[in-house]
Amino acid sequence: MHCPFCRHSDSRVIDSRTSDDGLSIRRRRQCPKCGGRFSTIETASLNVIKRSGVIEPFSREKVMSGVRKACQGRPVTEGDLAVLAQAVEEAVRQTGVSQIDTNEIGLAILGPLRELDEIAYLRFASVYQAFETLEDFDEAIGLLREDRLHKQERAGE
Q: Beta strands 99-101 and 55-57: pairing type?
């Protein structure tokens, strides 16, 4: 890490703290040459491989944007979308890979979105699971109904 004041190529870590979300580390540093102090924020990089082959950094905002379209007209808040995007990022990071395909991110969205809003889930799933017929929708709705029934049975136990 180069010193932002004198451009010296070394620095000493004075203090390290984990961020609130646990996904980054804030380090307080000091330059041994000029004595200047500065902070850095370190995160593990996570890159997305797009269908075109282009690689770009993971973006929670892009997750929220894609899900926002499926949630149009539904009772879903921006806060709900932010929580969902964070859950997706955490799930993707837990895979331990540094590069992930966009389709895998779409599939990682399905579980949290299903819990958030079933209609938005169906809209989103129809794209990422490539629904082609009414039977595909019917099957997905049947699975939602089964899950709802199982949840009700467990709640009644």
A: unpaired
Q: What is the strand order of the sheet 37-43 is part of?
A: 12-18, 24-30, 37-43
Following DSSP, what letter does each residue of 77-145 receive, concatenated?
-HHHHHHHHHHHHHHHHHTT-SEEEHHHHHHHHHHHHHHH-HHHHHHHHHHHTT--SHHHHHHHHHHHH
Tokens of 75: 């009772």
Distance CA 50, CA 41 (A): 26
Mean pLDDT of successive 10-residue stretches along the chain, which has 157 residues? 92 90 86 96 90 93 94 96 94 91 92 95 90 93 91 81
pLDDT at 157: 65
Exposed/middle/buried for residue 68 (C-beta within 10 Å: 0-12, 13-18, 19+)? middle
- At 7 the pLDDT is 94
Task: Name the amino acid, one letter, at 144.
Answer: L
CA angle centred on 65, ends 61 and 66, rounded to 5°: 120
For residue 12, is it left (φ>0), alpha (ψ between -120 and 50) or beta? beta
pLDDT of residue 150: 87
